């Protein structure tokens, strides 16, 4: 096992358990995305909507593995969830929160443009995101659109900027704590 | 609903519900005095090795128990403010330890508002001084001109980095002062604990021992003195005698769903400001149908949270916002003491200045501008990560009976009603907050910020709900947290506060805890 400082920091940053073919692997969400790790909770349509929206809101979210990150956390029990939503007053389980909003966004794209959200051009997609952010959406099911926008934006910021790679992207030091020498 | 056969356990001297800040100081002192002490912690066992430096992983330190239903125009943010696991919320607290001021104890007498405490500052001062010496606080009492009288800090203040220097420039330009924040964070080695390395990961839990929390100070002492903790032990009911004037123990469920009866001579509820009244209300009996220790009808009432809000600015100069402590580098309390100074407003406030910032998380850089997305967000992040500064005001919350914890019709998996919390701030509190925001923006402009903006109003800390007072007519407990109705049932923590003050409450709850446990031990024979 490589125990270099860099490796240690990476493992302290964001490596999660992903199930593939009955076996469990420790991967970052980006690695899980690159290896097309199967999803456990989200269906392909929801996952596509998720990453289209997340990538448009926080560029870099797709390759950082937003679909695998959210999916893995939705399959965890709420106590061990790393999602910000766990302390925003939304009762667990959280899957319905995401899927209801994602399906509303997809429906909105079809209503307005007769296309899947993934097929929208950047201008069409931006308008939908603007309206979500301001709560100016009709026939929206699930959590309020502006709240969902806030949560998804935060999730995407987590994996794009909140990891060791994210700190490097911003050119700021990560500076983890000293490894504790003993526990009480 | 867990309803297995109940396993009765041997009686202990002192049973404490919770293992956080309030629980740990009481456990340590009682165990050191020879009492058999048992803590029941609903969350998992954690050690310092679990405190990963990451805003994502740190979320596991936040509340993970039964949901709390919240209503009102300023929600208390229970999920964010409460903790989960060994050490409770102390494990993600920032270590900002100012003292309450003398007028905080007498707002009814001085201003005709809210509630007076049954004690005054001079009563609590010796306990502040002793806790300060035991735990270690870094600060500068000479520069902190607003500080009430008390012993000098045992350690010098933590260093001020560029972000703090820049904001201090704004205060100075307006003829105002700043001082190092009093932090329960070591600026030098103290009692075997390491000094801080200023990496800004305080709220992810500090595994170095530099930041004082339950796991670095009092839980180790409690453990040496043979106190025990049972984890994954969710207390579902407080048990009393038939008359209802004495507790005999508690019922709890373990991780496997097995119910246990744990008997005790004395029970201390130290499960934070929402769970304590929830347990009292949910433990109603025929003798006490409105809940235990509730002849006053005040259990759950006078719940408070400090209204707080950030000021943000972008500076031309590099601010190095990643250095320092999450709680901040400097403090200003110019507008603290005169709570009625602002027309139409009520309440004082303090500024916690130059908080260390991380890119993500609820309080992270990205969420300071939730309106920006797409390529503009990346540009903002790259600028703000090096040029941003912030400070936060923390204000008084007016104690109001209608702000309360009550039982929800909905129940948790153990069959216990959920807590429902209603909390609203009044117009006079709102005006105080508006004043603070305008002042903060003026400070940042005077400091030379090129862009200045403010964040949303949030609830910081949770207080009240089981307030102390002089009699059962006006309170749930006496000055020691001893329930008026049930002498061998004590409450510990911020839930005892009859008024909020406008300072972070952890130092005060320790001082109250020390006062309470010494009373409990000295009066033990008469209490049990």
Fill in the keyword field for this structure.
heterodimer, A: 184 residues, mainly alpha, two-stranded antiparallel sheet, 8 helices, 51% helix, globular, disordered N terminus, disordered C terminus, B: 528 residues, alpha/beta, seven-stranded mixed sheet
What does this 3D model show about the protein?
The complex is a heterodimer of chains A (184) and B (528). In chain A, helix 3 (44-57) packs across helix 7 (145-161) and helix 6 (122-134) packs across helix 7. Helix content of chain A is 51%, strand content 5%. In chain A, strands 1-2 form a two-stranded antiparallel sheet. Chain A has eight helices and two strands; from the N terminus they run αββααααααα. With 184 residues, chain A is mostly helical. In chain A, a hairpin with a 2-residue loop joins strand 1 and strand 2 (23-27). The relative contact order of chain B is 0.20. With 528 residues, chain B is α/β, with parallel strands linked by helices. The model of chain B has no long low-confidence stretch (mean pLDDT 96). In chain B, strands 1, 2, 5, 6, 7, 8 and 17 form a seven-stranded mixed sheet that branches. In chain B, strands 4, 9, 10, 11, 12, 15 and 16 form a seven-stranded antiparallel sheet that branches. Chain B has eleven helices and 17 strands. Classes of the chains: A mainly alpha (184), B alpha/beta (528). Chains A and B meet through helix 6, helix 7 and helix 8 of A and helix 2, helix 6 and helix 8 of B.
